[in-house]
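Dear colleague,

Thank you for sharing your sequence with our group. We've completed the structure prediction you requested, and as agreed, I am returning the results in plain text so they can be pasted directly into your records. Please verify that the sequence below matches your submission; if there's any discrepancy, let me know and we will rerun it promptly.
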Amino acid sequence: MADIPESLTYSRLAPFLWIAAAVLVFWTLALAYRLPARHTTDHWDVAWVGFDIALAAALAATGWGILRRARWATPAAAIAATLLLCDAWFDTVLANGRDEQVEALLEALLVEVPLALLCLWLAIRRSPAPRRREEGDHPC
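Please find the predicted structure tokens below.
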């Protein structure tokens, strides 16, 4: 994409993302109607172990990137924060029974959400300062 002006790329990407969001809203409404309230799967353990491995890798990469002052530490921190919030959401929503619900809620409130906020803070703090727009620059 080096030959395409940056402003042209952004001006084409924004409407594409808006359309994708609108399609996702309709898809979500269809799923809300179609999905059963209860579902059993043979690979529950594989899904959660795989997710937790990805989360551990994102946290490790964030730590390594921060230590090395790498440019990719910012997106790594944003990814880790996103995975932590998803983990908190799904653990809490999918908990079965009072004991699991209490455990998931405590883990979310005491570990996952605070750690996600720390990662977001790192991502925002390390993100490059926005460049000043010059006269005639495209607003994107």
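Summary note from our side: The chain has two domains: 1-34, 49-128.

Kind regards,
the structure core
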